[in-house]
């Protein structure tokens, strides 16, 4: 699990966007993202692309925490529910179902007051590397 955490926290993308790990356990993760002015769209609310990005990352991290070495987003659906303009948002990713090659994941995005901002589901290709093949 420590390697998975390092992989995410050391990624250039995480550093660029300012993502933080709040909590992780097998099959579930909570990510924290303080809102920056650079996230704002023309309506002065956080752009939907930021929502989708953090939801995708929460689901991918949750899938990876199941013990897989690689996860690849195959499909993702986002329902945008409410705009946010300031504060901090949290993405909570969870496992719905998994088998040897795919994982069905979900994530919710909430604000500091636990108001749901978005809901997402995604299907991920999951890979466990077999070191005996190296």
List its salient traits:
Thiol Ester Dehydrase, Chain A, 6 strands, 3 helices, alpha+beta, 134 residues, 23% helix, six-stranded antiparallel β-sheet
What does this structure look like?
This protein is α+β, with helices and mostly antiparallel strands. It has a single domain (2-133), classed as Hotdog Thioesterase (Thiol Ester Dehydrase, Chain A, Roll), CATH 3.10.129. Helices cover 23% and strands 42% of the residues. It has 3 helices and 6 strands. The chain has helices spanning 2-9, 12-17, 48-64; strands at 20-25, 28-34, 70-80, 88-98, 102-110, 116-127. The protein has a 6-stranded antiparallel sheet, covered by helices on one side. The mean pLDDT is 93.
Beta-strand content bin: 35-45%
The H/E string reads: HHEEHEEEE
Which residues sit in consecutive blocks of at least 5 with pLDDT less than 50? none
> Number of DSSP strands?
6
Helix content: 10-25%
Name the CATH class: Alpha Beta
**Secondary-structure arrangement, i.e. CATH architecture:** Roll
CATH topology: Thiol Ester Dehydrase, Chain A
Helix/strand structural class: alpha+beta
């Amino acid at each position: 699990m420590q390697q998975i955490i390092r992989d995410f926290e050391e990624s250039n993308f995480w550093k660029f966007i300012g993502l933080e790990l709040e909590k992780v356990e097998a099959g579930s993760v909570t990510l924290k993202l303080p809102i920056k002015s650079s996230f704002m769209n023309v309506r002065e609310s956080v752009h939907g692309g930021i929502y989708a990005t953090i939801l995708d990352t929460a689901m991918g991290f949750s899938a990876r925490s199941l013990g897989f070495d690689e996860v690849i987003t195959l499909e993702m659906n986002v329902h945008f529910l409410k705009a946010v303009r300031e504060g901090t948002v949290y993405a909570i990713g969870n496992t719905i179902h998994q088998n040897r090659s795919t994982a069905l994941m979900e994530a919710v995005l909430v604000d500091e007051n636990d108001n749901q901002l978005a809901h997402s589901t995604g299907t991920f290709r999951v890979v466990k590397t077999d070191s005996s093949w190296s």
